[in-house]
Amino acid sequence: MNVGQAAGSDDAQPVDVGSVELLFQLGMAFQLMLEKFVRRMDAAGYADLRPVHGLVFQSLLAGASTSSEIGSALGVTKQAAGQFVNDLEEAGYVCRTEHPDGGRRRLVRLTLKGHQHLQTAGALLRELEQELESIFADGSSDRLRADLAQLIMRLADGPLPPFRPNW
Amino acid sequence: MNVGQAAGSDDAQPVDVGSVELLFQLGMAFQLMLEKFVRRMDAAGYADLRPVHGLVFQSLLAGASTSSEIGSALGVTKQAAGQFVNDLEEAGYVCRTEHPDGGRRRLVRLTLKGHQHLQTAGALLRELEQELESIFADGSSDRLRADLAQLIMRLADGPLPPFRPNW
DNA sequence: TCTCCTTAGACAAGTTACTTTACTCATGGA
DNA sequence: TCCATGAGTAAAGTAACTTGTCTAAGGAGA
C-alpha cells in the first residue's frame, strides 16, 4: 500500500502492517476476522448460510417483522429481503405466519433452528474475540474498541447506515 | 448487534457502538471510511474508477507487470485482471507495450494519468486520516494503528492474503 | 527437429447477488 | 365507489466476476 508515496522497494512483499494506511488496516482486519468467523460457522454446520442471513436474524431481533422491514433495516430492496426470507424459510430458520395488522403483510419469525444459529454465532464470535485478547498490551481489546467506536461515531456523524459489506 | 445475547430492548436503534462486536466495529469503520474516500475521489474527477482499479495501480507499484501477475497479486483470475487492464487502458491510465521476456506476455505500465491518480488517492487518504487524528485521546491514531497491526498479524499468522473486499 | 508441456492471453458463456420494472392484492380513507 | 397506499411477488436486467475453452509462444527432452 502506501498509496501515492514513493515505493520503498520493488519487492516489499512482507508489508510493514504498522505503516500502512488506516483504511487498509481496517479492511484487512475485517476481512481476516470475518473469514475466520465464517470458517468456524461452516464447521459448526452452517455452511448453507451467508453472513447476510445472520444480519436478517439480527434485524428480526431488533424489531423487524416483515420482509419489507428487513429490507430497509439491511439497506436492500424488499425483493432482495424477500429472497433471503425464502432461503431461510426453506431451510427452516424462520417461518411466515399471519400478520396481526392484516393486509398482504406476513409476519416473519425465527424458529428454534434460527435461535440456535444465533446462539452459535454469538458463542463463536465471543470465542474468537477471547482468543485475540492476549495480543493487546493490557490483555484486553477495550482500548481498541473504544478507539473504533470514536472513529465510527465521527465518520457516521449521526445514526449508523445499514451495514452492507457486499457479501 | 450483540449476536446471540439477550436483546437489551426491542428498539435499540441508536446502537451503543462501544459494546458491539469487534467484527462489526471493524466492518462498519471500514465501510464508512471507504465511502468517504470514494466520495472524495469521485469529486476529484475519478468517478470512472472503482477501488479495485486503485489496487491494480498498487500491484503495479509493487512489481506486477502483466495481467496474470496483477491477477495473482489481487487474488482474482487472470481474465478478471485482464478486464481491469482493458478498462484502465481504454481510459488512459495504463498502457500495454511489448514485454522483454517475449511470449504472449504484454507489459502493463502506468501512464502519467495513472501516476496522477495515485498521487491524488494518496493525498486524499492522508487528508482524511489527518482530519480524524483529533478524535483520539493523544491527538494521534498511532495507538489504534499499532493495535490493528497486532490484530492483523495475529489473524493472518503469516503473509497477508490479497485484500479483496468484493467491491 | 519434432513432440510435449507450460504459460500468457483472449473470447464466450455461466454464475451470483443483487436492482429495476411491473404487476397483484388487501385495506382504508375521501 | 374510487382511488391511494403499502406489502408482496414475478420476471427481466445488470455488475462483477468465474469457468471453460481456445490460440499463441516459448522451452525441455527425446
TrEMBL record, chains A, B:
* Residues in HTH marR-type domain copies: 19-157
Q: Which Gene3D superfamilies match?
A: Winged helix-like DNA-binding domain superfamily/Winged helix DNA-binding domain
| Record Pfam families | MarR_2
Q: Cite the InterPro entries for this sequence.
A: HTH_MarR-typ, MarR/SlyA-like, WH-like_DNA-bd_sf, WH_DNA-bd_sf
Q: Which domain of life is it from?
A: Bacteria
PANTHER family, per database record: MARR FAMILY REGULATORY PROTEIN, TRANSCRIPTIONAL REGULATOR, MARR FAMILY
Q: What's the protein here called?
A: MarR family winged helix-turn-helix transcriptional regulator
Source organism per UniProt: Jatrophihabitans lederbergiae
UniProt lineage:
Bacteria, Bacillati, Actinomycetota, Actinomycetes, Jatrophihabitantales
